Amino acid sequence: MARPVSEIYEEIQQLSDPEKDRLLRALVAELDGPPDSNVEKAWLDEAQRRYLELEHGRVKAVPGEVVFERLRTRLRE
Q: Which of 59, 61, 67, 71 could covalently link to 53 via disulfide, CB atoms 3.0 to 4.6 Å apart?
């Protein structure tokens, strides 16, 4: 018979931070399901596409500090 979540939670509270981290990673991996073998290639393709756009002047880079200031402004609205 499954134990109540409250009981499991109490046990989790007794774990060290590294143990909690390990448990959390295991749970997330289980919920994510099997890895998609095409993800790495898709990210590489995307990175190469964006790099070429910058190299050929099709897009303009925006400094990180400008991006974060814009985000802070939007979040205050």
A: 59
14-33: pLDDT as tens digits: 999 999 999 999 999 899 88
Q: How many domains does the structure of the chain reveal?
A: 2
What domain range includes position 63?
Answer: 39-76
Predicted confidence (pLDDT) per residue in 42-59, tens digit: 999 999 999 999 999 999
Residue burial 52-66, b: 16+ Cβ < 10 Å; e: rest: eeeeeeeeeeeeeee
Residue range 32-42, pLDDT digits in tens: 888 888 999 99
| CB 59 within 8 Å of CB 53 | yes
Asked if 15 contacts 23 with a C-beta cutoff of 8 angstroms, the reply is yes
- Based on the fold, state whether residues 26 and 51 are members of the same structural domain: no
